[in-house]
Amino acid sequence: MAIIMLVTTLLSMALLCEEATAAAYVRPPARPNLMLFAGGKKSIQPDQVHVSLAGPNRMRVSWMTSSMTAPSTVHYGTTSQQYTAIASGVKKSYSYFLYKSGQMHHVVVGPLLDNTTYYYMCGGSGREFKFTTPPPAGPDVPIKFAVVGDLGQTGWTKSTLEHIENSNYNVLLLAGDLSYADYYQPLWDSFGKLVTPYASAKPWMVTLGNHDIEGIPYIVDPFRAYNTRWQMPYSESGSVSNQFYSFETAGVHVLMLASYADFDEDSSQYKWLQADLARVDRSRTPWLIAVLHAPWYNSNAAHQLNGDRMMAAMESLLYEARVDMVFAGHVHAYERMTRVYSMKRDPCGIIHITIGDGGNREGLAQSFLDEQPEWSMYREASFGHGELDMVNATHARWTWHRNDDDEAVVADDIWITSLSAPESQCSVSSSTKRGVSNRRVLRPLGT
């Protein structure tokens, strides 16, 4: 009897512990959509300001004006209100049925000093903005990325952006699905206004998602708004597409891949990726990461198999190059995988992370598969963002920050060793070619 009572007591305590653990986080309810309308008469005043990396010691400044005659110039310098340089660029606009955009200006400024704050004025009028350049190039130079996907523009988006702002990041990586305009073009303007306080101060590097396509066969070409508003750098290895490109900062080579452009062996994206990976020098950039939209590994019930065809076409390329991490969006939840290749745990494989939980209007993907795969380490359906802190050439710290009401709570925290590090035992130079003759001709995902 005493043993039975003891077992009963222990079971009761365990159940209480489980209940306490489950009750430790109660997911807050949805928050309403935000929409910041433009108003007033035509103006040359800058609006929807954001900056992005545009090559070594260069930054692209982008903004919208409602006036068609506003100049595409940026005055800038290292002291407030004292501009020592001026740069000129281009402007473009687009139509979408009855909608007519303002003028989107894109100006590349530089050369710039590393890790320096610059003050700038767009078009020679309006308020002053400022941005901070990333750290210098070098294999052992620390740098911090904020990582987010599927932002949209809801109350949770605003909370996510505020948390990111407090993270002291250097560069933001956005894994697609920016505005969730979904054909209603004024929402692109609203999104631009919403992110201006953040994107005007630190470089944002973005790739496209399915909600950014907005194409109508024979009527409207896809990505019309995205390509006009968010111009990204062309890669030195020959990419002439705004949908896929690469860039380097500090000791990191970043691949921005397109889930919704052709990716078979005959495609321009595939050939570009081969050429880009061939020029990666791990002695200069020991870290190699990729960002795309539709995840290749996913144990959520939502969007199952959406990334499989792109994975079949390109996974071996990234594996052979010893890519360290791949960040994806699309699934509105967080999930971190261990190193994996060909659906199996592999010490030389890639760490895949789904981070499509920025705050979109469609809500969270709350149903995961009952049986968690062996390669899935942590999964949770909550809004939030990630921070990737490259400490040095060999080690990085990844943290995922859940939006718990209005606080950013660290819910997942790991240290990562680069595959280029001597202790990883995954030599890049000695990696063997796998599956080249068995690759199938594949086409991009549908929407």
From TrEMBL:
**Signal peptide position in this chain?**
1-22
Catalytic activity annotated for this protein? a phosphate monoester + H2O = an alcohol + phosphate
The residue ranges of the Purple acid phosphatase N-terminal domain are: 46-133
Q: Which residues form the Calcineurin-like phosphoesterase domain?
A: 143-334
Kindly give the Pfam families that the UniProt entry links to this protein.
Metallophos (PF00149), Metallophos_C (PF14008), Pur_ac_phosph_N (PF16656)
Keyword terms: Glycoprotein, Hydrolase, Signal
- Compositional bias annotation for Polar residues: 426-435
Q: Which Gene3D superfamilies match?
A: 3.60.21.10, Purple acid phosphatase-like, N-terminal
Annotated region described as Disordered, given as residue ranges: 426-447
CDD domains noted in UniProt: MPP_PAPs (cd00839)
EC number, as in UniProt: 3.1.3.2
**Which PANTHER family does this entry report, sorted A to Z?**
ACID PHOSPHATASE RELATED, PURPLE ACID PHOSPHATASE
The name under which this protein is listed is Purple acid phosphatase
